[in-house]
Write a structure and sequence with these properties.
Blueprint (H helix, E strand, L loop, with lengths): L1 H6 L8 E5 L7 H11 L4 E5 L49 E2 L2 E2 L1 H8 L2 H15 L4 E4 L3 H14 L4 E5 L4 H13 L4 E5 L2
Parallel strand pairs: 1-2, 5-7, 6-7
Antiparallel strand pairs: 3-4
Length: 190
């Protein structure tokens, strides 16, 4: 249970908490933890690429100041080289919307349809040529199918990576990608 896990840590043993995805810090589940440590004098630093919350709770409840703000140029963190691909068979009309995003199960079902997979993979391979490429998939089954299709055309050039795979396997795949042994890294949640 959460309370027992939290009590394993003494706030006095810590001087700093770093909160990634800090836009979640106002949520009650985060506040229980943060308040426990902050009450003992622990400082908190939060980082987030999305500082605005959908529920409009102010991050000022947790964070006193903004130490650094990286301004985007034309709405992007880095210059983009955009290639739009129109996939006629994609139909998102049956995907439910949850918190401003498509439901992951619904989206996965659409993206894993064979003609949709080919409609995305074929132009991706044409556009990327021999460049190392990271592809973001909706879920593991989607990633595996994309890598399978790429590897049919270019054997051994694609691998998948996800947050639930064994760390040693994930590290090996990342090493292979960095070295160029793998051209396409199909990513889920990393």
């Amino acid at each position: 249970n959460y309370k027992r896990r939290m009590e394993r840590f003494k706030p006095s043993d810590f001087s700093l908490l770093v909160v990634d995805e800090a836009h979640h810090a106002c949520a009650p589940s985060y506040r229980r933890i943060l308040d426990r440590f902050m009450d003992q004098g622990c400082k908190v630093v939060g980082v987030s690429a999305t500082p605005d919350r959908a529920d409009e709770l102010a991050l000022g409840q947790v964070f006193a100041t903004v130490a650094y703000k990286y301004e985007m140029v034309d709405g992007w963190l880095v210059p983009l080289d955009v290639h739009r691909v129109y996939v006629k068979s994609l139909d998102f009309s049956l995907c439910k919307n949850v918190g401003g995003d498509f439901n992951q199960g619904d989206l996965g079902a659409v993206m894993e349809e064979e003609k949709n997979l080919h409609g995305v993979v074929v132009p991706t391979m044409e556009i990327t040529g021999n460049k190392k490429t990271v592809i973001f998939a909706t879920r593991v089954a989607h990633a595996e199918r994309m890598a399978e299709i790429i590897n049919r055309s270019k054997p051994g050039s694609a691998a998948t990576i996800d947050g639930k795979m064994a760390k040693d396997l994930r590290d090996k795949i990342l090493r292979d990608y960095r070295s160029g042994a793998i051209q396409y890294l199909v990513n889920v949640g990393i």
